[in-house]
Amino acid sequence: MQIDDIDRRLLRHLLAEPDLSTTDLAARAGVTSATAWRRIERLREAGILRGQHAIIDWRALGWEVEVSLRFTLDKTDPRAFDEFLAAVREVPEVIEIQTFLGRVDVRLNVIARDMRHYQEIYRDRILTLPHIADIESLMLVSTIRKTESLPI
Amino acid sequence: MQIDDIDRRLLRHLLAEPDLSTTDLAARAGVTSATAWRRIERLREAGILRGQHAIIDWRALGWEVEVSLRFTLDKTDPRAFDEFLAAVREVPEVIEIQTFLGRVDVRLNVIARDMRHYQEIYRDRILTLPHIADIESLMLVSTIRKTESLPI
DNA sequence: GATGAAAAATCTGTGAC
DNA sequence: GTCACAGATTTTTCATC
């Protein structure tokens, strides 16, 4: 799909202020609301805009612990990889899964209410995942998603 | 703040389908829209709901490369850490920053249009960051945010 | 082929209960 | 927590460039 300056302005403002109404977004991008609406719709159809994400503060909800786990698997075949990922999806406390090129290497972010709870999840849900050769854990202090200042 | 079952249902549905109108959300949670609205407002004031995030498909926009970089800094003092983070914030291609406990250790996710562009960013914007002792790079294949299936 | 103005459909936010 | 409603917003239509 072709993207022009108006689309770029719309995307930039949408990323900076996702709660904006189409009317206000249009005003900021210097077009009418009908135009803004049609273009947003087109970006959505093209798969560039994939909807919204509600941001939840886990800590405010009482989930104090977030840990980033990095796995090395003990096999390199795709089936082992798929089995591992399928098992991971069954663990609700895993809120993010990342896979990488060039290694049998996966990263998971796990949340827990507190350290005791985390130890439980780790023992019962993480260590029991299939095909694990090695795990490295890092306690997360903060995550900043910088999607306000996009390079578009 | 106290969270009850209705709040939990609202949050769960909001996470699963963030584009839902308050009316539809209310219907799914089994309350009227006025109730849903007031509770959402309360969750917002309590800092549990922190607004929305527009999801963009970088690949559809022509940003083909995402790399996860892990840094070890050469100093352990807080000032070096802050200087490093301040410099990172100036790089628009860095879309995520994570900091960890127990190490002078930071992770960044960087996007680029293609490998050539990534090499440029790496050489001119990453290697020039202050206080770097070591960098490890992993090419991202996929990120799945599993926030649909929350443990609440 | 895309735009703006304006109308129609829908939703949000508030007051009364 | 529900119901009702005015005001705002979203989405469609249509004439125009």
Automatic annotation (TrEMBL), chains A, B:
GO molecular function: sequence-specific DNA binding
InterPro entries tied to this protein: ArsR-like_HTH, AsnC-type_HTH_dom, Dimeric_a/b-barrel, Tscrpt_reg_AsnC-like, Tscrpt_reg_AsnC/Lrp_C, WH-like_DNA-bd_sf, WH_DNA-bd_sf
Gene Ontology annotations of biological process type: regulation of DNA-templated transcription; response to amino acid
CDD domains on file: HTH_ARSR
Record has Membrane as a keyword: no
Keyword Protein biosynthesis in record: no
Protein name (Swiss-Prot/TrEMBL): Lrp/AsnC family transcriptional regulator
Gene Ontology, cellular component aspect: cytosol
Record-linked Gene3D superfamilies: 3.30.70.920, Winged helix-like DNA-binding domain superfamily/Winged helix DNA-binding domain
HTH asnC-type domain: residues covered: 3-64
PANTHER family, alphabetized: LEUCINE-RESPONSIVE REGULATORY PROTEIN, TRANSCRIPTIONAL REGULATOR AZLB
Keywords: DNA-binding, Transcription, Transcription regulation
SUPFAM superfamilies registered for this protein in UniProt: Dimeric alpha+beta barrel, Winged helix' DNA-binding domain
Domain of life: Bacteria
